[in-house]
Amino acid sequence: MAMKYLGAYMMAVLGGKESPSAADIKTILEAGGISYEEEMISTLCEKMEGKQVSEMITTGFTKFAACGGGGGGGGGGGGGAAAAAAGGDAAGAKEEKKVEEEEEEEDMEFDLFG
Questions:
Q1: 42 contacts: CB under 8 Å, gap ≥ 6
Q2: Burial class (CB in 10 A: 0-12, 13-18, 19+), 25
Q3: pTM of the model
Q4: How far apart are CA 102 and CA 107, in angstroms?
């Protein structure tokens, strides 16, 4: 099932609907200009019937936590001396350019919701 259906369902719940209807989900998707399949919406509503979103999230989180994870992130690093010997000034110039681009993005006046 595509995340757009689940996202629309959860948005309806956040908007105050305990158990959103298919019409609620369609309204949200249409407001965003998102295409949808009637069958997928009805399947979602059937599967969520009689269930609370908060309980589903809690149950899913505990299952996800049981999978473990983490680890494997070590290594890397080192090589700092080699970079300095190879011309560390070039890296400094690239970093300055990157910061400059980020500042330009902050100046933009973009309002996603208005």
A1: 22
A2: buried
A3: 0.55
A4: 9
